[in-house]
Amino acid sequence: MAGATGGQVKQLNALAKSGAKLATSYGQATADAMYDAGRAAGHGFLSGLLAQKSAIEKTMALLAVTAVRSIRVSGAATLPKAKKKAPAKKVKPKKYDSGGWLQPGLSTGVNATGRPEPILTAGQWDAVQRGLSGGGPSYHYEINARTADFTVAELEHVQRVQEARARVGRPR
Hints:
The chain is 55% helix and 6% strand. By secondary structure, the chain is mainly α. A hairpin with a 3-residue loop joins strand 2 (105-106) and strand 3.
């Protein structure tokens, strides 16, 4: 290649480009042929099943009859006699409109934890959330560590400004 003329380099480039086009065309034709073959195979499989539909249904019916006979012979189909039970007690649903405790077990709800669970009203949930957040406003600071050179006093000033804005209803 080092001693090739400009014309020879152009000829090599043209051959490489032609080879790439040929490979793309061959790949596309092969992919199309494989797709068509797969589609035809699926169609053939389905056609074969449909052609044997009645034979398949007869075999399934024979299997079902054989299974039922086998169960009858083994006695597995014999069910124990039902015991007479006292009529079920009517359970009055418990209202939790003002909160309460859901006891373990089955009631109008299911508590599978094995211990009583609290049922909270909307106001009680609000109180829980206020308690978790400390009861006051929450602050979110995003500080870029590469450019942050705030002092504690400057951060406290920013917080005081935000609190003042919040008191008058302005965005922080």
